[in-house]
Amino acid sequence: MPVYELRYEDMVKDQQEVSRQLIEFCGFDWEDQCLRFNESKREINTCSYNQVRKPLYTSSVHRWKNYEKHIGPLVDELEDIAAEYDSGRSESERAMH
Hints:
By secondary structure, the protein is mostly helical. The chain is built from five helices and no strands. The mean pLDDT is 84.
């Protein structure tokens, strides 16, 4: 199964380009509304309702570092899993993201 790697920092830096790449990867057609996700009138049933209604914001960039000592073992394990997954992909598959 193809996996698309996306960093929030990259999305905040260039939302349009990163969004276009993600939409293309998923096989969807681009719509300018993708950049205005926060203006959607659809019902949102999530605890992060207030965040979803905001445009992308930079205040969360690198915020994960506040929890690094707590999530360190998980990050290490996920890196190992990602490396194992990546080793099974071809060069063209790696270049897709």
